[in-house]
Prior knowledge:
There is one protein chain. Helices cover 40% and strands 14% of the residues. The chain has 9 helices and 10 strands. The strands form 2 sheets. The protein has an 8-stranded parallel barrel. Strands 8-9 form a two-stranded antiparallel sheet. α3 packs across α4 (118-136) and α4 (118-136) packs across α5. The longest helix has 21 residues, at 81-101. The protein starts with 5 loop residues before the first strand and ends in a 5-residue tail after the last helix. The mean pLDDT is 96.
Amino acid sequence: MSRQLFGCHVSIAGGIDKSIARAESLKLGAMQIFSKNASRWQALPLDPEVVERFKTARSHAALGYIAVHDSYLINLASPDPKSWQRSVDAFSDEMQRCLTLGIQDLVMHPGAHLESGEAAGLKQIIRAINQARDRIGGGVRILLETTAGQGTNLGWRFEHLAEILAGCHKANLAVCFDSCHVFAAGYDLCSLQAVNRTLEEFERQIGLDKLALFHLNDSKKGCGSRVDRHQLIGQGEIGEAGFHALLNDPRLTAIPKIIETPSGPGHREDLLTLDLLRKMSGEKT
């Protein structure tokens, strides 16, 4: 089996260009970063010198894949016109920052309808993505992340993602499959048979050709709980059998895989988890 691209979320503290060296020190094949403080609306423009250092460092690094995750404040499903437009503006800025950095993939949470209803929320998301696409252009691939369905969050059903994909025909869209979220949403991943059934449903609703990234996280809560609580791989309700099935499915080998589990001091737990994933996939560590 060919070597898989495993990685984790990496800090941009001190400058986004420093994330590359951090990823290299952890021997990552893939990494995910924020392009700004994810808990604030406003961000200073990217410094051209920092951008140049980032691009130079990346060109010399062994990293095979980088994705940006957008701000947690953005809600493209908001029924409030002011909040919705603020989210569209912030999302457009996230897209522009990806273009500036030369990063293709932007991971985003579809949004929460805030009791306006699923149908209304999905329409808002489609309208938002189309507006951002018209503003920024098509140089960034938007990855719709599966959600656990906590509260009024959309994207916990594959049908939600299929509707967004169908409605954003001009935008370049694909899916980020978060194992914890998918499991908590009610799609079983605990065994080879369960994984196959879930992937068959994904293929039927969306198509595996639209699966661009994995977030590999175990779940503290049970299947169908609709509670988003990440756990270390093999220590949660999914268990090692489910991850072994995902990692050894030849249809999924080439898809980058990022962990978002508790990292521990100095990424200690990340390193142990990545070693476990490599062993489970049959790689020598």
